TrEMBL record:
InterPro entries: Aminoglycoside_PTrfase (IPR002575), Kinase-like_dom_sf (IPR011009). Residues 221-273 form the Aminoglycoside phosphotransferase domain. This is Phosphotransferase. Keywords: ATP-binding, Kinase, Nucleotide-binding, Transferase. The lineage of its organism: Bacteria, Bacillati, Bacillota, Clostridia, Lachnospirales. SUPFAM superfamilies: Protein kinase-like (PK-like).
Length: 417
């Protein structure tokens, strides 16, 4: 087996594909050498960009150890599950997935299109850039890939075979722990000491019996609801975008899970962006107001469009057993609403209380404002976790965001924080 490096990756690619001119100038870089804005904030894989100026490739190899130091041993076969997940998604929504070129089982490597002609959406959002089509694109990605890998569409044997194939026990354990079982650590996500009062406050929220109960109920759904193929790591660092295009990457966590999980994880980024935008600097208050309105639009529009697409696919292609069942679509959308709010809250709380960087907050340099953003988020997350099973509309949820923000900002103003 070959171990890829910057020195041998070009020869390796030439041995697998005939894209490159043997005498041409081929550029190689390793993910992690560039800025976070260029390469993202991933911590697991060794990935190489290879380009001759005309062809632009990503070469990704599974290794036992993660790229970041101090991480645990990983599943060597995750490359195959990721490639298989991308193949399935590309067959369903080809415009939203990078092109696939090669999968090498002997060396645990796959090669795809490099889509860095687009930009990692998270770090553009932190600059105030907005994407008017992103909610529709990601809603369609989720609704289509989930419906067409679910039992609503697939015959029973195919559905069960896929469920077994995408068990992905080792990789999903990372999410099982990180999103539902984390507690507060003594340092914040960029290695700066936290104020002791912040630690006490955060620990009390995490230890609140109502929060503990909600997170365990949500964890049980995550562990036991194998409804469809989900991405499981669908955050804005794994979405390259422009004003017109979007590409979803990094599917190594994919497994058969709950319909609502991906939407919860995706919208959690926009809830975090909203909370951070309330406290991070903007050129004008008008710019702050516009960006916050965009975040709320993304939360609402993603859910609304997801329900529209899923209902459409169901009407067109669901199995006879599910056709013309009164109330079925409405029940599906209500369940998705409640579960995505719960999953979003637990994921956010887990990330805020963990050592892994959380760029949406880490981007705020001012100590007080950074922790104000985190405290507002934690309070909002608690409300979401306490109420997730009782929400009846997306607008009710958005009103809670606005109400909690108003109360929090009024209180810190009174305290002169």
């Amino acid at each position: 087996m070959i171990t890829l490096s910057k020195e041998n990756v070009v020869d390796y690619v030439k041995s697998r594909l005939d894209f490159f001119n043997l005498d041409g100038d081929i550029k190689v870089s390793a993910i992690g050498e560039g800025t976070v804005e260029e390469d993202g904030d991933g911590f697991i894989n060794f990935v190489y960009r290879v380009s001759d100026g005309e062809h632009h490739l990503i070469v990704k190899q599974s290794t036992l150890e993660a790229r970041s130091k101090g991480s645990f041993t990983l599943d060597l076969n995750r490359y195959k599950l990721e490639y298989d997940a991308m193949k399935i998604c590309a067959a369903i929504v080809p415009d939203l997935i990078p092109k696939l070129y090669d999968c090498d089982e002997e060396n645990r490597v796959f090669i795809t299109e490099d889509v860095s002609y687009l930009r990692i959406s998270r770090f553009q959002l932190l600059k105030g850039v907005t994407y008017p089509k992103l909610a529709d694109q990601i809603a369609r990605y989720m609704a289509a890939t989930q419906f067409y890998t679910s039992e609503y569409y697939l015959d029973t044997k195919c559905f069960r075979d896929l469920s077994v194939h995408f068990m992905n026990t080792t990789m999903r354990k990372i999410m099982e722990v990180g999103m539902f079982l984390t507690s507060v650590t003594p340092e914040d996500t960029v290695g700066r000491p936290l104020d002791p009062e912040f630690i006490t406050f955060s620990k009390r929220i995490c230890a609140d019996p109502a929060v503990l109960l909600a997170r365990q109920k949500l964890r049980h759904l995550f562990m036991s609801k194998g409804e469809c193929l989900i991405h499981c790591d669908l955050h804005t660092s794994n979405i390259f975008a422009s004003q017109t295009e979007a590409k979803v990457i990094d599917m190594e966590y994919s497994f058969f899970g709950p319909f609502a999980y991906d939407m919860g994880y995706f919208t959690a980024n926009f809830i975090a962006q909203y909370a951070a935008a309330a406290f991070r600097p903007f050129d004008t208050e008008g710019a702050r107001k516009e960006f916050k309105a965009y975040c709320l639009f993304m939360i609402r529009e993603t859910y609304v469009k997801y329900c529209e697409y899923f209902t459409q696919y169901c009407k067109e292609d669901c199995k006879p057993e599910y056709q013309n069942i009164p109330g079925l679509a409405e029940d599906f959308c209500l369940t998705a609403l409640r579960e995505f709010i719960g999953f979003a809250a637990s994921a956010m709380l887990g990330r805020i209380c963990d050592l892994i960087p959380y760029p949406d907050y880490d981007d705020i340099d001012d100590y007080v404002q950074r922790h104000n953003a985190k405290c507002f988020s934690i309070i909002l997350n608690r409300e979401m976790l306490v109420k997730w099973e009782s929400y009846n509309s997306i607008d009710e949820f958005i009103q809670d965001i606005l109400t909690i923000e108003e109360i929090y900002c009024r209180n810190i103003k009174d305290l002169k924080l």
